[in-house]
């Protein structure tokens, strides 16, 4: 890793660390601002109304009987498998998404925050009335799908940086698996797991997808992939393997 890449890497780490530290501070201070308290209470009331409107009370009560870690693990496995399928089908696009956050981390955070906040505002606006709940659910579903799509290149990004830090060689699928495990682990951390699940990862994922769309349809541009994307094809030397196995016999 040259000096420029090392600088960009530490620059990204500082940005993400600042986000996490700020959210952790809000979660640990004794007295929350009244605005945050009212906002949180509003979210709970809206969630209750949606559950009642859709007749999901029994499902929610059943899920409540399972340990939180078990639900996180099961949902994490499900997301990793579905993400792996998406990666297999849209590998080139996922790699482009990874290059976007490598090259433009500040823009990813900026676009992600703007879209995420606007989507939340629309979501809560439509949940004020029972009639608007279906529209709110459609908005929430769209945001979830976009966030899920963006989580695939985001996982590759995390896996790539983990391999770089550990000085381990890898390729796209390895990066994705390592990054996915890292993301599930972050969601499981006490006190900040919710921040990763409902803010940090969605914002980054949405920002990646937004810039991918702009690059493809507006700017008509793409980035050169700067990390290994597939396993090196090495000839299988049967004689060498046989000599290793039979050595000393």
Descriptive notes:
The structure is a single chain. The longest helix is centred in the middle third of the chain and has 34 residues, at 133-166. The protein has helices spanning 3-28, 34-54, 57-64, 68-89, 91-103, 105-126, 133-166, 172-188, 193-218, 238-246. The protein contains ten helices and no strands. It is globular and about 70 Å long. The chain is 80% helix and 0% strand. It is mainly α. The model has no long low-confidence stretch (mean pLDDT 76).
Supply the key terms.
mainly alpha, 10 helices
Which ranges are low-confidence, i.e. pLDDT below 50, for 5 or more consecutive residues? none
The value of Rg in angstroms is 22 Å
Helix content: over 70%
Task: Report the end-to-end length measured between terminal Cα atoms.
Answer: 44 Å
User: What string, H for helix and E for strand, traces the elements in order?
Assistant: HHHHHHHHHH
Q: Gist?
A:
The protein contains 10 helices and no strands. The protein is an all-alpha fold and 249 residues long. The radius of gyration is 22 Å and the shape is globular.
